[in-house]
Specification:
single chain, 340 residues, alpha/beta, 12 strands, 18% strand, globular
Length: 340
Amino acid sequence: MFYEVQKVDTPRLTTACYHAGQPGMPKLLLIHGNASSAKFYLPLMKRLEDRFELVALDLRGFGDTEPKPIDARRGMRDFSDDVDALAETLGWDRFSLLGWSMGGGVAMQYAIDHSEKLERLILEAPLSPFGFGGTYDADGKKLQPAGLASGGGCANAQLIACLQSGERSFIAQTIDGVYVAPPYQIAPELKEMFIDSVLSTRVGDGLYPGDKTAAPVWPFFAAGENGVCNTMAPNYCDLSPLSEIPNKPPILWIRGASDIMVSDTSLMDLAWLGQLGYVPGWPGAELCPPQPMLRQTRYVLDRYQAKGGRYKEVVIAGGHGPMLDNEDGFVAELLQFFEE
């Protein structure tokens, strides 16, 4: 086996992770996204084992990491602080960070809090710097009341039921239709591992998906205060200070051209689904416009560059996880970024 499974006791919690690669090579820490775990990184780690020392961790509430409750009022900081506690315990004082989807938001929060530790930052199909749902325009203006149409109430009810029951077919369909872009087919043995990874998502108070509150306007709910999905609500999640960090590592923003999760027309954005007619009662674009997730990320990264940083936006074939359905293209872009 090319990797070692570890459980690391940190001052915050016991963190499960996979360790691979070559000591003495550049250090790369990998942060997974929502409804997944570090297992999604194993094929990529195999490809990169000769070029890096690699650690992929399970975030709290996922995989085999201790499922401590998540205070969403801190935005991404519970996750980011856990990452820092792991890095400190491992003795990693300088390294690069790769975050996928929600993990991209965690990576941005980490850069805001600990920019001096980062050599490079890779954002793969990242969460918008202004959160997931509940904002509009490139500069992340908030729908009112703040947190409307975001957070725990947005989670897919069928996915929650499958996580609780262990039913696999819907999760397989989600991986095939969202995590990768059809008609790409993941090898059967990998797909079973990835289904197991999704099923490792812990459902419960303070975990996935989180609570919600009532709202007086469509869709009649707003973010609650705990759990995974509420960490991404715009009343708690604001990663735009990334542009102001004092030490600015080079950033690679890489995404799949066929991503339907993080997009200016995301099929997981309630406002866009309402505009398409899939969610009844949508009040129109004047009151509840869709979230332009890509324009928002570009807005913040352009400010990052204007203030002395450097970033590169790369679009390759693939879905929400191009490291999965375009591994060759993803690896090529990643290695080129490290050579620049």
